[in-house]
Amino acid sequence: MDQLLNLIVEEAKTVLKAERATVFLIDKERKELWSKAALGAHKIRIPLDKGISGAVASSGKLLNIRDVYKDPRFNPEVDKKTGFRTRSVLTVPMRNAKSQVIGVFQVLNRIQGNAFDHQDEEILTLLADQATAQVENTHLYQEIRKLAQETIIRLAGAVEYKDYDTRQHLWRMSQYSALIAQKMGFDPEWCENLRLAAPMHDIGKVGVPDNVLNKPGKLSPEEWVEMKKHPQYGAEILGGSESELMQTSAIVALYHHERWDGKGYPKGLKEKEIPIEARIASLADVFDALVSKRIYKPSFSMEETLRLIQDEKGKQFDPEVVEAFFEILPKIMPIMEAYTPRGDSDKAVATPSF
Q1: Which residues does residue 55 pair with via DSSP β-bridges, in sequence order?
Q2: Please, which residues bridge with residue 313 across strands?
Q3: What is the pLDDT of residues 174-203, one digit of tens each?
Q4: Which domain, by its residues, includes 111?
C-alpha cells in the first residue's frame, strides 16, 4: 500500500503544484490523525479534534483556506516543531464505501498563485477517492489474510488437539522460523509468510491412523511406514492453492522431514534440493521440541539442545541455517524462556496470538 499511496501523493503534489502533500488516516483508538503517506514532511500525529485536518475529518467537509493563520481552526504547533511556514491549505475528506470518513488528503502552499482554486478541489477529491480505494483494498487484503491465518492455526492445532501444549509449540516454532529467515536476509514479506506457514508442518497427521499417531511406545516398522506418510498427506491437503501463503505451507509440510545428508523422508532429498522454507522450519521445530517438556519426555537442557544441533550441522540440518540460528539465539532465548513449559511445571503457557 505504501508505494501506491506515495505515488498518488506525489501526483497530487505535482499536479496541484503544492509544496507538501499528505494522506492522513484516522487512528480511532488513539483519537489521532497520522500521516500514512507524506511528501515534503516528516511522519506526524495530530489530535483528531485539532487543526484543519481534524476539522475536515470531524465534519466530513472540504476546506480550502487561503491564509491559515487567519483561521482559528489552524493549529500552528506543527509549524513550530518543523520550522515550516504554512500559508494556504486544501484538505478533502477520504470516505469509504459506507461513506465513513477514514482520513483526509491535504496539500499545502500552492507554488503558483496565492491559493488553491475550485479546479484544484475537484482534482484532489478525485485523488482522495483513489487513495481511499487503495487503503480499503489493503484493509480487505489484511482481513482475508487474517482469516486465512486463523484457519491455518486452527487446522494445525487440530492435528494433536489432545496435547494441551501443541498450540504453544506451533506459535514458538513459527516465531523461531521467522527470526532465522530474517537473519538469513530474506525480505519481510517472505519471512512473514514463513511465520504463518510453519505451523502447518504436521497437518498431514490428520491422515495417520489414531492407533499409530497416539501410540505411547515405539512404533513397529509397519506403523513407522504409516507415520512417514504424513508429509505427503499434508502436501495434498494444502496443495493446489493460488495463495502464496498456502503454497509455502504445502512446501513446509512436504519437506520438513528431509535431511541435509539425504537420509530424510519422504523423497530423500539432500542439501539445497530441499526448499529453504522447510530447512528453516525443520530446525525451528526440532529446537522447540527438544527444550519443551512433554507428557512423554522431560525437557532437554539448553546445553544439551545446542550441542545436539551443532552435532547435526551438515547432517540433519543445513549448515547455513544452523549458523543463522546460533547468531539469532539472543532473540530466540527470551521467547523460549517466557513461553516454554519446562522443569516440573505442568501448566500451559499462554502465548500471544498468531
Answers
A1: none
A2: 317
A3: 999 999 999 999 999 899 999 989 988 988
A4: 2-139
pLDDT digits (tens, 9 = 90+) for 119-152: 999 999 999 999 998 888 887 777 777 777 677 6
Is 309 a member of any domain? yes
Neighbouring CB atoms inside 10 A of 347's CB total 8
Residue with cell 479546479: 119
- In this structure, are 184 and 218 located in the same domain? yes
Q: The pTM is what?
A: 0.64
Q: Could you give the 3-state DSSP secondary structure of residue 297? A: strand
Measure CA 2 to chain center: 15
The C-alpha atoms of residue 200 and residue 255 are separated, in whole angstroms, by: 12
The mean per-residue pLDDT over the stretch 256-285 comes to 97
8-state DSSP, 238: H
CA 209 → CA 183, 184, 219, distances in Å?
38, 38, 12
Residue 309 and residue 306: Cα distance in Å, rounded?
5
- Output the domain CATH number for residue 83: 3.30.450.40
Residue 205 falls in the annotated catalytic set: yes
Q: How confident is the model at residue 213 (pLDDT cuts 50, 70, 90)?
A: confident
Instruction: State the catalytic residue, choosing from 13, 36, 205, 313.
Output: 205
Q: Distances in Å between the alpha carbon of 74 and those of 46, 55, 77, 93? A: 12, 9, 9, 16
Cβ atoms within 10 A of the Cβ of 231, count? 25
Q: Per the structure block, which three cell numbers stand in for 7?
A: 505515488
Cα–Cα distance between 251 and 234 in angstroms, integer? 9
Cell 488528503 belongs to which residue?
105
- State the amino acid at position 238 in one-letter form: L
Residue 140 neighbours by CB distance under 10 Å: 10
Grid coordinates representing 110 are 500552492
